[in-house]
Specification:
Mean pLDDT: 90
CATH superfamily: BolA-like
Oligomer: single chain
CATH topology: GMP Synthetase, Chain A, domain 3
Distance between the termini: 26 Å
Strand order of the largest sheet: 1-2-3-4
Number of domains: 1
Largest sheet: 4 strands, mixed
CATH class: Alpha Beta
Length: about 100
Protein backbone atom coordinates (compact mmCIF):
# COMPACT_ATOMS: atom_id res chain seq x y z
CA UNK A 1 0.00 0.00 0.00
CA UNK A 2 1.41 3.38 -0.90
CA UNK A 3 0.80 6.76 0.64
CA UNK A 4 1.76 9.48 -1.84
CA UNK A 5 1.26 12.38 0.51
CA UNK A 6 3.03 14.23 3.26
CA UNK A 7 4.03 11.99 6.16
CA UNK A 8 2.18 14.26 8.58
CA UNK A 9 -1.17 13.95 6.80
CA UNK A 10 -3.38 12.47 9.51
CA UNK A 11 -6.38 11.90 7.21
CA UNK A 12 -4.36 10.00 4.62
CA UNK A 13 -2.79 7.90 7.39
CA UNK A 14 -6.28 7.17 8.74
CA UNK A 15 -7.39 5.94 5.30
CA UNK A 16 -4.25 3.85 4.81
CA UNK A 17 -4.82 2.24 8.23
CA UNK A 18 -8.47 1.50 7.44
CA UNK A 19 -7.64 -0.03 4.07
CA UNK A 20 -5.03 -2.30 5.62
CA UNK A 21 -7.97 -4.54 6.56
CA UNK A 22 -8.87 -4.84 2.87
CA UNK A 23 -5.20 -5.43 2.03
CA UNK A 24 -5.01 -8.34 4.49
CA UNK A 25 -7.81 -10.12 2.62
CA UNK A 26 -6.47 -9.21 -0.83
CA UNK A 27 -2.72 -9.73 -0.68
CA UNK A 28 -2.23 -9.06 -4.41
CA UNK A 29 -4.10 -5.75 -4.34
CA UNK A 30 -2.23 -2.50 -4.78
CA UNK A 31 -3.69 0.44 -2.86
CA UNK A 32 -2.63 4.04 -3.46
CA UNK A 33 -3.85 7.02 -1.45
CA UNK A 34 -3.04 10.54 -2.64
CA UNK A 35 -3.82 13.92 -1.16
CA UNK A 36 -4.68 16.25 -4.06
CA UNK A 37 -5.36 19.39 -2.05
CA UNK A 38 -6.73 20.36 1.36
CA UNK A 39 -10.19 18.90 0.77
CA UNK A 40 -9.50 16.13 -1.74
CA UNK A 41 -8.09 12.64 -1.29
CA UNK A 42 -7.97 10.13 -4.12
CA UNK A 43 -7.88 6.37 -3.57
CA UNK A 44 -7.00 3.76 -6.17
CA UNK A 45 -7.32 0.02 -5.58
CA UNK A 46 -5.91 -2.25 -8.26
CA UNK A 47 -6.96 -5.78 -7.44
CA UNK A 48 -6.76 -8.94 -9.57
CA UNK A 49 -9.87 -10.10 -7.69
CA UNK A 50 -11.81 -7.44 -9.61
CA UNK A 51 -11.21 -9.25 -12.93
CA UNK A 52 -14.54 -10.20 -14.44
CA UNK A 53 -16.61 -8.49 -11.75
CA UNK A 54 -19.11 -5.72 -12.26
CA UNK A 55 -17.87 -2.33 -11.02
CA UNK A 56 -20.80 -2.03 -8.63
CA UNK A 57 -19.87 -5.35 -7.00
CA UNK A 58 -16.31 -4.14 -6.26
CA UNK A 59 -17.29 -1.38 -3.89
CA UNK A 60 -18.94 -3.00 -0.82
CA UNK A 61 -15.83 -4.60 0.68
CA UNK A 62 -13.73 -1.47 0.15
CA UNK A 63 -16.43 0.76 1.62
CA UNK A 64 -16.75 -1.61 4.57
CA UNK A 65 -13.06 -1.04 5.35
CA UNK A 66 -13.51 2.72 4.95
CA UNK A 67 -16.23 2.77 7.63
CA UNK A 68 -13.37 2.92 10.13
CA UNK A 69 -12.44 6.47 9.07
CA UNK A 70 -14.01 9.51 10.66
CA UNK A 71 -16.84 11.32 8.89
CA UNK A 72 -14.60 14.35 8.37
CA UNK A 73 -11.96 12.24 6.64
CA UNK A 74 -14.53 10.32 4.60
CA UNK A 75 -15.97 13.59 3.26
CA UNK A 76 -12.56 14.40 1.76
CA UNK A 77 -12.47 11.24 -0.35
CA UNK A 78 -13.36 12.58 -3.78
CA UNK A 79 -12.18 9.66 -5.92
CA UNK A 80 -12.48 5.95 -5.21
CA UNK A 81 -11.05 4.16 -8.23
CA UNK A 82 -11.47 0.36 -8.22
CA UNK A 83 -9.71 -1.33 -11.13
CA UNK A 84 -8.66 -4.76 -12.29
CA UNK A 85 -5.06 -4.80 -13.61
CA UNK A 86 -6.33 -5.36 -17.17
CA UNK A 87 -8.27 -2.06 -17.01
CA UNK A 88 -5.35 0.24 -16.18
CA UNK A 89 -4.36 1.26 -19.71
CA UNK A 90 -7.86 2.09 -20.91
CA UNK A 91 -9.10 3.91 -17.82
CA UNK A 92 -9.17 7.70 -18.20
CA UNK A 93 -9.55 8.03 -14.42
CA UNK A 94 -6.37 5.99 -13.97
CA UNK A 95 -4.54 8.25 -16.44
CA UNK A 96 -5.57 11.22 -14.29
CA UNK A 97 -4.44 9.36 -11.17
CA UNK A 98 -1.03 8.68 -12.74
CA UNK A 99 -0.62 12.19 -14.20
CA UNK A 100 -2.79 14.56 -12.20
CA UNK A 101 -3.75 17.93 -13.51
CA UNK A 102 -2.40 20.44 -10.98
CA UNK A 103 -5.04 21.77 -8.61
CA UNK A 104 -5.75 25.49 -8.44
CA UNK A 105 -6.63 25.13 -4.75
Amino acid sequence: MTDNSHASDVEVAEIVDALSVYQQNHADARIDVQRRHKFSIHIRVIDPDFEGTDRVDREPEVRKALRAVSDETFQNITVLLLLAPSELERSFANMEFENPVPSRL
